[in-house]
Each structure stands twice: as C-alpha cells, then as structure tokens.
Amino acid sequence: xxxxxxxxxxxxxxxxxxxxxxxxxxxxxxxxxxxxxxxxxxxxxxxxxxxxxxxxxxxxxxxxxxxxxxxxxxxxxxxxxxxxxxxxxxxxxxxxxxxxxxxxxxxxxxxxxxxxxxxxxxxxxxxxxxxxxxxxxxxxxxxxxxxxxxxxxxxxxxxxxxxxxxxxxxxxxxxxxxxxxxxxxxxxxxxxxxxxxxxxxxxxxxxxxxxxxxxxxxxxxxxxxxxxxxxxxxxxxxxxxxxxxx
Length: 246
Prior knowledge:
Residues 203-210 and 218-246 have low confidence and may be disordered. This protein folds into 2 domains: 3-63 and 149-185 and 211-236; 68-146, no CATH class. It has 9 helices and 8 strands. The chain is of the alpha/beta class. The radius of gyration is 17 Å and the shape is globular. The protein has a 6-stranded mixed sheet with strand order 3-2-1-4-6-5. A two-stranded antiparallel ribbon has the order 7-8.
C-alpha cells in the first residue's frame, strides 16, 4: 500500500504557514488534513512521514524547474543545479523582478523566450509561467521559494521525478486544477458539493473546508505503469517536465 502526501504550497514571504496544507491519503481514504507549518517545517514533516513509511509519494504544487533556455543561459545543466541555485538566488530574483520575470507593477510579460516549460506545453489547461511572480494566479513566487526544498528531499533519499528514476520515497510535481477544473474555490457550495462527491465518507469534517484546504484534499491518485513498480501502485498525477530545465 502506498501512502500519498499532498502539499498545497505557498510562496508568501509572511503568513505562509496558514496557507500551506498537508493531506494524507492511505488505502484510498483521506486520513489527515492540516495546516500551520512553514515551508521548512512541512518539508521536514514529509521527510519524517517517508521515514516511517518508505513507500510514500509526496506531491507538491509548485514548478520543479525552469524553461530549458533559461537554465542553459544561467549555466544550469541539471535539476539539482537549479535547486541549489535557488537556495541563494530565489529571494534576489523575486526582489529584482527583472526580465524574464514579471508580474510586479510596472513590469510586462517577458518576451526573451518561451515562458512555458515542456510541462505546461503538454498539459495546457490554463498554464501560468514560472516567470510570473505577481498578479492573479502567479506561480513563480511559490516555485522559486520551493525549488530549494527539493534538494532537501533529494538529500533525504527521495527520488525527485522526472529528474531521477522512479523509486521510494518519491516526490512529484502536481497540478490540482487538472482534477477539479470546474470548481470555483471561493464558493462555499461548490466546494461542499465537490468534497461530498469526492469523499462521501468524510463529508462532515471537510464540508466547510476553506479554498486552500479543498485544493489540498483534491484526489490526485492515478494508476502508474512505471518500470520496476507494480501496475497497481499509485502515484500523484505529476506534470512531467520534458527537458532538463523542465
């Protein structure tokens, strides 16, 4: 049996702990849902969960990489090099908001190269560029502040897919909106209806869940046919980068 841990991430500079949620699904049922931990604490908890149950998949909803052309421009040749660089440079990149980054007042969408990774090009429901660090739906801030923690997971023995061959424990990038594309998160009735249909046996505890809680508990488990794993094993749906820079 696979333990699935889903983390609804936040890149906020202040108050991120209230926005970060962790959900655990075991044997097909939602067994845990809570918030209140900062970015490092939630990663530490994910590592602890994997130590207790080696067959663990951890899904995080931020970009695991950058468009390949940008990685090449910066001299990064692997996912690990990007993650290590973000430990030192993420906040500086966010503060400067220089091209190709944009989203702050007075900035314009960049035109230096393709703003999307292979991931967004392949899935394309309503993709947002990792270069967008401000404005509605921006994912860049959370991604830049999240990538450094992928190095923590790697150092703790996680296989970070698709940069590593699949193995246990496993970390994957997830895109919750693929599983609830029609739900309006700020509408209570829409959330309640979705949760009741998705978790009929857990309906009462989560019926009034706030938007971020709803996102975190969205079912994301799909059958996998990875080499070396059972066809009955489960994984969180990952948005798979197509290049080194993802």
